[in-house]
Amino acid sequence: MMDSMQMTEDGLKRTDCSANATAAPAAVAPRWVVRLLVVGLLLAALNLRPAISALGPLLKEVRADLGMNGVVAGLLTSVPALCFALFGSLAPRLARRGGSAPVVLTGMIAITAGLALRPFAGGTVTFLAASALALAGIAVSNVLMPVVVKRWFPDRVGTMTGLYSMGLALGTACAAAATVPMAGALGGSWRAGLGAWALLGVLAIVPWALVLKDPASRRPGPQATSEPTPRPAHGTGSPGDTSAAGAAERIRIRSSPTAWALGGFFGLQASAAYIILGWLPQIFRDAGVSASSAGLMLAVTMGMGVPLAFVVPKLAARMRHQGPLVMTLALCGFTGYAGLWFAPAAGAWLWATLLGIANCAFPVALTMISLKSRSSAGVVQLSAFAQSTGYLLSVPGPLLVGALHDVSGGWRVPLMLMAGLLLAQTVMGVLAGRDRVIEDGR
Domains, the chain, ranges and CATH? Predict the structure, then answer.
C-alpha cells in the first residue's frame, strides 16, 4: 500500500507540467503527511456534494413527505449556496487561528453529523437545520481546499486541483446514481437513502485526524508558508516581495477587478450547478423519465467531471488566458439547455452529457483561484472572497427556477433564466481569465 502511495506521489510530481512547475515546495513536510494529504484531499472531495446531489432524485418524495411547495423546495436547493456564502467567509479566520488541516477535519465531522441527523427530521425546519450543519462543514472545506493545495503542493496545482475535482465529481455522481437504489434496498424510505451517505463522511475523518499528528499541520495556514510561490512563467508583473506576510499586507482584495470577476464567475457557475443538481431530475421526470433513470442521468451529468477533472485544470493552468476554455464549456451548456427546451426526453442522455461538460467550469474556477495570486496568503483571501461572494450571488438562482416553474406551469421560462445566467457567467469568466494577479491591484 505504501509503495502504491509512493508511486502515486512520484507520478503526480512527474506528470504536472502546469504553470507552477518552477515553484519550490511551500513547506518541508514528512513524507507520510504528504501521502495522507493526497488521500485526505480525495476523501474530502468525495464528501463535498452527496448532501446535495443525493437529494435531487428523491426531491419529489421529500417534498411529499415534508409538505413542501415549489417555492420552499426552491429554497431548499438554494440553502447550499447560502450556507457556503455565510460559513465560507469564516474559513480564513479559523485557518489563521488553528491552521487549515484542523478546520478541514472539523468540516468533515460537521458533514457527517448533518447527514446522520437529516433522516430523523420530522418537518421542513428540522430537515433544513440538519442540512445546514452538513453544509457548514462543506462551506469551510470548499474554501480551504485550494489553500491546502497551494500550501503543500505549490508545484502541482493543476494535478492536485484535478485530483480534488475528480473526487468531487465522483462523489456527486455516485450519490446521484446510487441514492434511489439504496433507498429501495433499505426499505424504500428516502430517509435511509439520504442517511447512508454519513458513512462516507466517517472515512474522510480518518486521514485528516492522522495529519494532525504532525505539529506543523496545526500552524496557521498562510503564515506557516514563508517561502515565496513564484508567479507562473507566463504571468505579468514583477514578483517583488512574495512572502505570505508581505502579500497579505499588499492585497486589497475588494479593489481588484480580477477578484470581482472571479467572484462573479464562481457564483454564476455555482448557480448553474445547483440548479442542475436540484432541478434536472425533476425536468426529466416531468418529461416522462422514471425516477431511477433521472437519477442516472444526473449521475452522468455530474460524472462527466471525473474523466475531465485532470484534463481541464491542467489545461487551464497552462493557458495565458482562460477565456477560450470558459467559452467552450459555455457552448456545451447552451446546447444542453436548447435540448431540454425542444426534446427533453428524446435526447435526455445527450443533454445530460453536455451539461456535465459545461459543469467543468467549477474546476476552471478553482484553478483560477490558485493562479491569480502569487502567494498562499493571497490564495486564502481570493478563495474566501470569490467563494463567499460567489455563493451569495448564486442563492437566488435555484429559488427563482422553482418559483418560475410554479408560475408558468412548465420549464421553458426557467430554461430562459438558466440560459441568461450562463451568458453572464461566460462574460465574467472571460474577464476573470485574463493574465493578471490580485497583488498587482488589477
Answer: 27-223+247-440 (1.20.1250.20)
